[in-house]
Design a protein that fits this description.
By secondary structure, the protein is an alpha/beta fold. Helix content is 36%, strand content 14%. It has 14 helices and twelve strands. The strands form two sheets. Strands 8-7-6-9-10-11-12 form a seven-stranded parallel β-sheet, with helices on both faces. A five-stranded parallel β-sheet has the order 2-1-3-4-5. Strand 9, helix 10 and strand 10 form a beta-alpha-beta unit. It binds glyoxylic acid. Glyoxylic acid (GLV) binds next to loops. The site of glyoxylic acid has 6 residues, from loops.
Length: 339
């Protein structure tokens, strides 16, 4: 292992992963509940070769520019919109993420949001707790059926596919939109039909978003998009908040243009608009898509193992900017090896 490697860990990772990392490099664990960002992050990163980072602390151009020693960013998340990857690549910094280990956990949460909103679970739970329930009634808390409905999946990547499998199990039909059509085998396994975004918006009974946040997908679901959906539609978002225009969503819900929404992510986290909080037809979660013991353990391991593998000269599978590998190897060759 390179003897002088210094790594900052900006948030909690599992104890096992922390131990493994500490036996490989000199580590600095930031343990405060407050987010580590901006100037404080820049200062704490001084002299570090790598950072094991989380969604809450953006690795901006400014952070990168002010830490020229940085060689690797290991994001403990599959999405990496919190990192300026273009800038990192320019500066020959390797970026890692955690794909493949959180698909089922995230798809479970998306499905939970769908069924909770369709069947008014949170509202019904509050109703029982309030002591207002007076017994069985045929017209109490009527929701929407799932079976036989058409679900529109925006982004049929690994998480979108895991969500589609759950929908199939509940007797739903799957249509999807994304720039490039999925493999024929995936389409046939999921009985998924590729359609344009507009067709998906107008045909779907439920819509679930599973695309990454990019310049192209920012506010993909805006006022125009929401004007196309059925008034009985439920929108689920477990991807990234800014894919949906908050104001347009609130207006659509208020004006009855959308039946409900299930949200795990928000445009300006952790701020959740008061209008959404006041609505009973909206299920709100605090960005917990991948929050299971096993999944978070796997995410921590993948980030740390990837970092160790990269600094040991073997390209890990979870590199985001693969073209940077050779430059990264050149940069780390100057670190003394004690192997
Ligand atoms: C969580 O949101 C992730 O991208 O892993």
């Amino acid at each position: 292992m390179p003897s002088k490697l210094k790594v900052l860990v900006t948030g909690p990772i599992t104890e096992e992963a922390a131990k493994k990392l500490s036996s490989f490099a000199e580590t600095d664990f930031y343990r405060s509940e407050n987010k580590l960002e901006g100037q404080e992050l820049i200062q704490r990163l001084q002299g570090c070769d790598a950072v094991v980072c989380q969604l809450s602390g953006p690795i901006t151009k400014n952070v990168i520019d002010n830490n020229p020693n940085l060689k690797l960013l290991a994001n403990v998340a599959v999405g990496y919109d919190n990192i300026d990857v273009e800038e990192a690549t320019k500066k020959e910094i390797l970026v890692l993420n955690t794909p493949g280990v959180l698909d089922d956990a995230t798809a479970d949460i998306a499905f939970a949001l769908l069924i909770s909103t369709a069947r008014r679970i949170v509202e019904a739970d509050k109703f029982v707790r309030s002591g207002k329930w007076e017994g069985f009634r045929l017209d109490l808390m009527l929701g929407e059926d799932l079976a036989g409905k058409t679900v529109g999946i925006i982004g049929l990547g690994r998480i979108g596919q895991a969500f589609a499998r759950r929908c199939l199990g509940f007797g739903m039909k799957v249509i999807y939109s994304q720039r490039n059509r999925a493999d024929a085998r995936i389409e046939s396994d999921l009985k998924a039909i590729h359609v344009s975004l507009d067709e998906l918006l107008s045909r779907s009974d439920f819509i679930s978003i599973h695309c990454p946040l990019t310049k192209e997908t920012t506010h993909l679901i805006d006022e125009r998009a929401l004007s196309l959906v059925k008034p009985t539609c439920i929108l689920v978002n477990t991807s990234r908040g800014p894919v949906v225009d908050n104001n347009a969503l609130i207006a659509a819900l208020k004006n009855g243009k959308l039946y409900g929404a299930g949200l795990d992510v928000y445009e300006h986290e952790p701020d959740v608009p008061a209008e959404l909080i006041a609505m009973d037809n909206v299920t709100l979660l605090p960005h917990i898509g991948s929050a299971t013991e096993d999944t978070r353990k796997k995410m921590s391991e993948l980030a740390v193992d990837g970092l160790i593998s990269a600094f040991s000269g073997t390209q890990p599978s979870n590199v985001v900017n693969k073209t940077t590998w050779d430059a990264f190897c050149r940069r780390i060759s100057s670190l003394t090896s004690t192997k």
